[in-house]
Amino acid sequence: MSQFKELLTKRRSHYAIGANTDVTASDVAAALKEVISTVPSAFNSQGVRVVVVSGENNQKLWDLIKGVQTQVLDEGTLNYMTPIMDGAREAVGTILFFEDRDAVEAGIPGNPERRSVYKNHESANAQLTAWLALTELGLGANLQHFNIGYEQGFDRAIRELLDLPEAWELVAEMPFGSIEAPAAEKEVIAAEEQVILK
Amino acid sequence: MSQFKELLTKRRSHYAIGANTDVTASDVAAALKEVISTVPSAFNSQGVRVVVVSGENNQKLWDLIKGVQTQVLDEGTLNYMTPIMDGAREAVGTILFFEDRDAVEAGIPGNPERRSVYKNHESANAQLTAWLALTELGLGANLQHFNIGYEQGFDRAIRELLDLPEAWELVAEMPFGSIEAPAAEKEVIAAEEQVILK
């Protein structure tokens, strides 16, 4: 199996993550700088902006997210999500994925619906690329979508906390750290149902 | 540089593609079967369905797409896209990316807006994974989004041509084949603008 396919297979959602590793947030940022420009984007619009948050900022980030989620989630979901949020707070750091709306506006022609699809595709590609880069570093990570809602200002507090441009729309959060427990078993449907030759 | 990073760097949009290769559509389908179940999806909803089309079906597919596009594109865009569509027709084949709306409905809780975002993220992740798998096979590919519009029935003719389920929504088309010309130069913004450490 090639290294690429091995990475794909090893890339799983790790919710039990910690800080028991020598790999730093700075190492992660360096790895991302190597790969993020390879992420495909419609019309080469390059709207992805990635922020690696660690230390006190990472703790403030998750305090902020948890504060909001405590008010909006139902009890069952909150009970499920609390250890994930607490784990993220104490892990090595978090990759925040933004799309620069100015770059998207300037770079992608066409109607707003298509622009939104392309923007989401680029962000997802950046998320997967980053996740594989973390896997290559031996780290675990999971992917969350708290505070989606640029239009409604839901992500404003995070931009303000980190002093980020107004035009950056938050798409996803990827806390990362040492792998403290194996990933859960994953049920997959048969390859023959997902891939068809015609 | 690791094999993974090399693949990321080699993965480019190749518009000049042909059939001068021993790699078959069947080889491509086999490679996709190895990787497609590794693609992350929200709540493990696994809505991605991939169809590898080759030979006469591939020619019919691109005749169909070109027939529609000739009616809807402005002259400049049509002139630009015509060689890409003609090239796709004569290449080894095309990977069609669908999302099974039944799987998405059943697998992703929450409101329709969030479901749509997650669905697009999964499809984009499948597209990038497939593109890297093609790169690993030494093939070139490009990515198109003709006939987006399941709601409006724009993708119905393609489902009918290939006898695919009603619930499968077409998201993207990736024609692939031998690399007949190098990829164009690509301008990238500075890594420091895309990746920030906080």
Automatic annotation (TrEMBL), chains A, B:
GO terms for MF: oxidoreductase activity
Nitroreductase domain span: 9-177
Superkingdom, natural source: Bacteria
GO biological process assignments: cellular response to oxidative stress
Pfam families referenced in this protein's UniProt entry, alphabetically: Nitroreductase
This protein's name: Nitroreductase
Naturally occurring in which organism (per UniProt): Aerococcus viridans
Phylogenetic lineage: Bacteria, Bacillati, Bacillota, Bacilli, Lactobacillales
